Amino acid sequence: MSKATDVTKINEKSPYYDITPGNQIYGGGGARKFTTGEWRTETPVVDWDKCTQCLLCTPCCPDSSIPVKDGKREDFDYDHCKGCGICAKVCPFKAITMKEGI
Amino acid sequence: MSIRERMSGNEAVAYAIRQVNPDVMAAFPITPSTEIPQMVSTFIANGDIDTEFIPVESEHSSMSATMGACAAGARAITATSSCGLAFMWEVLYVAASDRLPVVMAVVNRALTGPININCDHSDSMGARDSGWLQIYAETNQEAYDNYIQSFRIAEHPDVKLPMMVCQDGFITSHAVMNIELIEDEKVKSFVGSYEPENYLLNPEMPMAIGPYANSPFYMETKMNQRIAMKNAKKVILDVAKEFEKISGRSYGLFEEYHMEDAEYVIVIMGSAAGTTKDAVDELRAKGVKAGMIKVRVFRPFPGEELAAALKDAKAIAIMDRAESFSGMGGPLGSELKAALMDAGCKATVVNNFYGIGGRDYTVEDAEAIYNDLMEFEAGTKPFKQFRYIGLRK
Amino acid sequence: MAYNFREVMSKPERLAPGHRMCAGCGGTIAARMVLRALKPGDKAVIGNATGCMEVSTFMYPYTAWEDSYMHNAFENAGATLSGIETAYHALKKKGKLDETYKFITFGGDGGTYDIGFQSLSGAMERNHDLVYVCYDNGAYMNTGIQRSSATPMFADTTTTPVGKVSNGKMQNRKDLAQIIADHDVPYVAQTTLLTTMKDLYEKAEKAIYTPGAAFLNVMAPCPRGWRYDASDIMEICKLAVETCYWPLFEVVDGQWILTYEPKKKLPIEDFLRTQGRFKHLFKPENEGLLEQYQAEVDRRWEDLLFRCSK
User: A21–B99: do the CB atoms touch at under 8 Å?
Assistant: First the structure.
């Protein structure tokens, strides 16, 4: 029975015998454990009073950082959002604003 | 009971493929290996095997598709020669680094420049540093036997590396010789089925393969390949022992011919070993202590083992069927001389190029080489380290 | 079945965050939506040509793909996926596999239009049951914005730089969707990123679930290479469609179908003006180039209308 690779145990200090044979990785989506949120220079913020849950922002996120649950969007995944601002631009209700900084 | 037959080297490999019944074969025709995919296609067309054949549009794609199939969890094979192998060059390295145990029948042929369809080893020697296991055959019998053993070696958990099973173009691939074939059922149970632990089509566990892995990981990855390559030596010998039980034929990393007290030795690979053996027989009849070593496994390179086998030799001629244009020796010469030096060898050593682009190599040529070794060693002829055998002057 | 946007967006995410694509990348927006078209119960193997997407989504040891994934090299995504798809049939035939798998490969225009063209053509001609998705950003972005055969005319790239005697790329872009359609595969479509992504989703779904080889050409803008503010991507895609620079169509079993016809075709300047790579075209002395551009867009559009029997 194959086991998922624990990607948190493989890093730039790992000895050769801890590097997976053929650099193969078992189990999907391990990138979630790598945060890209600190790339941001601007941060999207939702005004929940204005948000109508139209979801038009959700498919436009290049970083899968607008989670949808039970047909409704949740708050941003700030661990991964890179602050590109696409969501703010597409929101027809101006419910998302970009704030300076992380 | 084994089956006595007469067939060519290509037929022998195709026969072995039929017995192994791999899951996937992807291939593109190139002389002199073309017959192998042709024959496999015929087996498929007649329902003899249920291998899926991918008639790709190039060798780059035959290797790429074979790698994809292997990563997906299939036993996957291909065959090629010469420029076809050269066209795969980039992805050969990827296959080895990805640790994909694909098996490739290589029918050795000179690389183009100028175009030449005849045998030399420039194609597979060009790929010697790609991380593939390489095994060479003297005869169609050995091509068949090596091919059957290759799956057990490549797929072994301690190895997991791709493997080239080489034979000499036309000389072995097309010449019909006597052969002893093993019964289908024995081959099937010897080879077994391919059951990788991890593969792309494993519904229990997805797998990602082929990452971007920069300097923090690259060197460690190469070390792991090196370890696998070194592990292969034992695995090759273990598999050979088991193979002997079903075939009665024994194999090592190399074959020694009259080496028990040999003073003058030719080290050679492939079909030309047969020619050399005839010369050894004639010289032995005259009382000359001639011997020969035929290197079967080139990757991993059995340097220490060869040096040990050559420890009592007075003079050695290493024969290369491929140029490397260093202005010095060929691939076998360079590597074996390094191993001999490490072992403190004091013998006289020359490195000859022969059979390049299909140039004849005769029993007389081999005898002349032995005679030269004796004269070099005795100091009765000016020493010449590098020579082209059979070159017109 | 009618497109249910809310339902589609509620499907599980198959491209995880944490990849290193640039902020605002069009390629990953396209990839996310294509993967959403998979039925949740179906498994998939994803292929990838070398390029931005590959080096960013599987940077050892982190894979962003929830499904099995294989990158091999730059020019062989078609052949590699051919092998995987063939292995699937082999294992199915031998009773070693019960699950349903789908096969999707992503390549940029470099890996698809150019260096991987032969491998793609072979995979299409052999009609493997797979989808090749080109995320077309019109240049070799991974190596730093060099021109490709997908680069539009007059674009400023690092190998077709605008200079004193140069107005950028002199040649027109290759129409790859048309070339693949001429392979007589069951399904070819061209699309881009538009509001609810209905067009992209529906075409991806057809591509994935039509038996045989399918090709999707998705215009996926690159903020760095095209030189626009990353947040403008959706507006740029819309203008590409409304100016008929990037028409939406599909070719189903050889039948050309226009999937969107703008009510009023906008002038090409409206699309070109949004991007720094075309800035030089708006110098007064380059008016003729804009006319030339419009004429080329018109010619191609008329040709497409003819193919679609409009």
Answer: yes
Task: Closest CB to B57: pick one of C73, C80, C118.
Answer: C118
List, for residues B58-101, the tens digit of each pLDDT value.
999 999 999 999 999 999 999 999 999 999 999 999 999 999 99
Q: Do B198 and A16 count as a contact with CB atoms less than 8 A apart?
A: no
Q: Mean pLDDT over residues C134-154, rounded?
A: 98
Residue by residue, DSSP assigns B234-251 as HHHHHHHHHHHHHHS---
Q: How confident is the model at residue A1 (pLDDT cuts 50, 70, 90)?
A: low
Residue A41: predicted pLDDT:
97
Q: Which of C9, C16, C196 lies at the smallest CB-CB distance from A31?
A: C16
Q: What integer pLDDT is reported at residue C310 of this predicted model?
A: 87
**How far apart (Å, rounded) are the C-alpha atoms in residues C136 and C118?**
17
User: Is the pLDDT reported for residue B172 higher than 80?
Assistant: yes
For residue B268, give the 3-state DSSP assignment.
Answer: strand
Q: Would you say the CATH fold of B254-388 matches that of B3-247? A: yes
Distance CA A15, CA A55 (A): 46
Phi, psi angles (nearest 5°) of residue C187: -150, 125
| A31: nearest CA partner in chain B | B208
Provide the shortest C-alpha distance from residue C208 to chain B (in Å): 17
Out of A23, A34, A83, the one facing C18 most closely (by C-beta) is A34
Kindly determine whether residue C10 and residue A85, on different chains, have CB atoms separated by under 8 Å: no
A32 touching chain C per CB within 8 A: yes
C126/B54 Cβ within 8 A: yes
Q: Where are the domains of chain B?
A: 3-247, 254-388
Architecture (CATH level 2) of domain A36-102? 2-Layer Sandwich (3.30)
- pLDDT score recorded for residue A8: 96
CA distance A90 to chain B (A): 33
User: CA C16, CA A33: separation in Å to the nearest integer?
Assistant: 10
- Residue B331's φ and ψ, nearest 5 degrees, are -60, -50
**pLDDT digits over B224-249, tens only?**
999 999 999 999 999 999 999 999 99
C 30-49 → B contacts, CB under 8 A: 43, 45, 47-48
Give the position of tokens 């091999």. C72
Domains and CATH numbers, chain C: 5-307 (3.40.50.970)
Given CATH 3.40.50.1580, say whether it is the number of domain B3-247.
no
ipTM above 0.85, yes or no: yes
For the domain bounded by B254-388, which CATH number is listed? 3.40.50.920
- Which one of B52, B58, B72 has the shortest CB-CB distance to C118? B58
Q: Which amino acid is at B159?
A: V
Q: How does residue C1 score in pLDDT terms, banded at 50, 70 and 90?
A: low
Q: What is the pTM of this model?
A: 0.98
Q: What is the pLDDT of residue A2?
A: 78
Contact C67, C39 (CB under 8 A): no
Nearest CA in chain C to A20: C61
**What's chain A's Rg over C-alpha atoms?**
18
The sign of the dihedral angle between the CA atoms of A12, A14, A15, A20 is negative
Please say if the pLDDT value at position B355 is more than 70.
Answer: yes
Neighbours of C57 (CB within 10 A): 29
Q: Chain C residues with CB inside 8 Å of A70's CB?
A: 10
> Are B208 and C87 in contact (CB < 8 Å)?
no
Angle at C298 between CA C295 and CA C303, to 5 degrees: 125
Residue of C nearest to B207 (CA): C68
Instruction: Inform me whether the C-beta atom of residue C126 falls under 8 Å from chain B C-beta atoms.
Output: yes
- Domain residue extents for chain A: 1-34, 36-102
Flag whether pLDDT at C56 surpasses 80.
Answer: yes
